[in-house]
Automatic annotation (TrEMBL), chains A, B:
Family according to the record: Belongs to the class-II aminoacyl-tRNA synthetase family.
Domain of life: Bacteria
One function term, GO molecular function aspect: ATP binding
One Pfam family recorded for the sequence: HGTP_anticodon
Domain Aminoacyl-transfer RNA synthetases class-II family profile: 21-347
Identification of the protein by name: Histidine--tRNA ligase
Catalytic activity field: tRNA(His) + L-histidine + ATP = L-histidyl-tRNA(His) + AMP + diphosphate + H(+)
CDD domains cross-referenced by the UniProt entry: HisRS-like_core (cd00773)
Keywords carried by this UniProt record: Aminoacyl-tRNA synthetase, ATP-binding, Cytoplasm, Ligase, Nucleotide-binding, Protein biosynthesis
SUPFAM superfamilies: Class II aaRS ABD-related, Class II aaRS and biotin synthetases
One GO term describing the cellular component: cytoplasm
Organism listed in the record: Flexivirga caeni
């Protein structure tokens, strides 16, 4: 075995204290997803390569192939690691359609792999947390209203600071362009999508030259793509541009419904944002993008939208709406860039000191009593001097040290130094000390 | 995209109701591991191939290689999917040794991959749940006593029926063989390990012919390998064979200490079992094997032992003790063979009915109030007839349906038919209905 160990670029791993943060994030996402009625599924890491190829907007993702080192594999198809959770979910729905109940609400929290060049907040292995609602035949619109509220509920419980879910609706630009008489909707959507990389003037030039738009139509498209509002007033701004089309009407009504529900259930968390263009050539209704305040230079921490066909088996088509949260990227921002830390590097709330090796059993008995009441407890590794045992707890952030004794037990809060007589059948730490807590550094000046 | 979908043999996937069982098992393992002071780590799925090769007893596992489909990969070493969690853990310890605090207690619950031919209870992708305690330099013996108690605590909380953790100690056969004057300990251990495949007479022949033992020494080795006891009386049985050696004394004392602690903390759950030979050529002290009662024909659902060198960086050596639980195999036994099921296929405890689409918001408000108090709640997908909405809940196993009304809300337990007036700010389902429960079919006659 080689003794040298070099980290692999793009495959982030966490120290135990950081992993505690990751677990709390994953727990919160799961808890909220379940509160909102999503059922968990897990799919295998590999898919046949022919299923991974040519999948919508992610067709250009670099795929990792998987094959037995010895060259075997028998009749198995060529396989690769999944690069997102949508492709395996589509396959899972087709494979199990007869056993699932629709509308099917699932969440899925798993790693995905992409053979891309690693760079800031882009990884080769990273965790995605997806929620989707799929139905057979026709998917009611109200799910497009509901989905961002689920994500808003989850993010509201995470120490991410201010965030907003930006929402748009494919039908707004599509109806608007049609109202202008534009025929090739897709090319215009793709050029407008460059607004985050190119200056507006350059985009305008391309709309005129590449898409053949009249100058005033190009200006109208750019004006549309600049509208933002935190309420339904975006619709008035669109109307003021003077374009009319039934598809535009439908899009404005749908986005207004999303904003109205958000005003009640998630006030201030949604932004009607007609500048969002990413995925508009793939999604067919509402689109979502999750952004942290103050991270304008960073890629979004999640997104999704409504699609007409997640999958089809030739007879049935499965439309749906979904949002994917980039958990590893979110943690990259919060841990590596904002300095989020955990109050300790272990789940342990109480260290039971050991007087001497002969009485280790007494300490084990105390630990068993505390664990039986749900208190994570550790027995000290050595019957060292008490100062050393306290230091052992201190180095790990364990808040309490327990001492057994012939004339009764005592527990010490090593932060305050306070020490009190206790009974292992009754004492519990304060609720806030039971689990590690997350600590954000004071706001940077 | 291909529309045909064929399951991949050896890559088990679960329906939502089965996944609920899997999640509850994983939750219980995690909870108990944390109660006992183990910290979570997750490692990347891939390791350099040269690190995966030649790793102790697993050297013959078929490895899945991983490489970018396009042929790129730059300066990255050739990589493969890990086939267990020990190899990545050893690498993680070396890579982060300066940042970890020792003794380091970690648990790790992740999938692993092996390119083997799938057969009953043997998979190509499966979840392992490992706990290990590693130290630098010297590892105190008491951890070998502690570790099986952690697993016994976890299994006692799972609906696995009767189980036992079989324990042996490498020092017992080693000391015994030395006491007989045998020099090549390893070859004898390996031949005795065949006892579960070959008749005793055949093993005896090989001990004489291949290992060169005198007939009475071969008989003594076989006698030793038949000793079992659920208390410390195994030591008397060994002594009665009349062999003496200091290493044998040490082994008997250690295994006795394990059995004594178990008598207090996990009565009836451990079996001193000198028939265990698997891994004795790799482990250096206590060895463990977890077995479900009535599954003598099945492979064990977990095991582990004490090892002198998890890893070494040339300067420091890291000894440890660990146990690995085969979660996917355990679930294969319980779900696929014993028929363990969940009471519902969704986390949802309450379905809020919808009177008409105009009042969907009222139903959403009720759902939000219930969720805010931790009750998984779903709003009905359509304002269908109430009978249909109740049927929707029934098909999924959702126990309660909530009706909103101008003259107050009511909730119906659709199992009993009982319907009572309720207030969304106060009502909660009985604790046993809040989460899906696990159901074992009545014992087979």
């Amino acid at each position: 075995m080689a003794n040298t160990v070099t980290p692999l670029s793009g495959f982030p791993e966490r120290l135990p204290s950081q992993r505690i943060i990751e677990q709390q994030f994953l727990d919160t996402l799961r808890e909220v997803f379940e509160l909102h009625g999503f059922a968990s599924i897990n799919t295998r890491a590999v898919e046949p390569l022919d299923r991974l190829g040519g999948q919508g907007e992610d067709a250009d993702k670099e795929i990792y192939g998987v094959s037995p080192v010895s060259g075997g594999g028998g009749n198995d198809p060529a396989m690769g690691l999944h690069f997102d959770l949508t492709v395996p979910f589509a396959r899972y729905v087709l494979e199990n359609a007869g056993k699932l109940t629709f509308p099917f609400r699932r969440y899925q929290i798993q790693p995905v792999w992409r053979g891309e060049r690693p760079q800031r907040l882009r990884y080769r292995e990273f965790i995605q947390a997806d929620i989707d609602i799929v139905d057979t035949g026709k998917l009611p619109f109200h799910y497009e209203v509901e989905l961002p509220l689920v994500v808003a509920d989850a993010f509201s419980r995470l120490p991410v600071g201010e965030f907003r879910i930006h929402v748009n609706n494919r039908k707004i630009p599509e109806g608007f362009y049609r109202g202008l008489g534009i025929e090739d909707i897709t090319i215009v959507l793709r050029i407008v999508d460059k607004l985050d990389k190119l200056p507006a003037a350059a985009v305008r030039d391309r709309l005129i030259e590449d898409a053949g738009l009249a100058a005033e139509h190009a200006d109208a498209c750019l004006a549309l793509a600049q509208i933002q509002a935190d309420d339904t007033s975006f619709a008035d701004q669109v109307r003021a541009l003077g374009v009319e089309h039934p598809v535009l009407d439908e899009g404005l009504a749908q986005l207004s419904a999303v904003m109205e529900a958000a005003a009640e259930h998630a006030p201030g968390l949604l932004l009607a944002d007609l500048t969002i263009a990413r995925g508009l050539d793939y999604y067919t209704g509402t689109v979502y993008e999750i952004r942290l305040a103050g991270e304008e230079g960073a890629p979004s921490v999640g997104g999704g939208g409504r699609y007409d066909a997640l999958a089809s088996d030739g007879k049935r088509t499965f439309p749906g709406v979904g949002i994917s949260v980039g958990v590893t990227r979110l943690l990259g921002l919060l841990l590596d860039e904002r300095g989020l830390t955990a109050s300790r590097e272990t789940p342990v709330a109480v260290l039971v000191a050991v007087n001497d090796e002969e009485s280790r059993r007494d300490s084990m008995r105390v630990a068993a009593a505390l664990r039986a009441r749900g208190i994570p407890t550790l027995v000290a590794p050595k019957a060292a001097k008490f100062g050393k045992q306290i230091q052992f707890a201190d180095r790990r952030g364990i808040p309490f040290v327990w001492f057994t004794g012939a004339d009764g037990d005592q527990v010490k809060d090593i932060r305050s130094g306070e020490q009190v007589p206790v009974d292992a059948a009754r004492w519990a730490p304060p609720a806030e000390d039971l689990r590690p807590s997350l600590v954000l550094p004071a706001a940077r000046e």
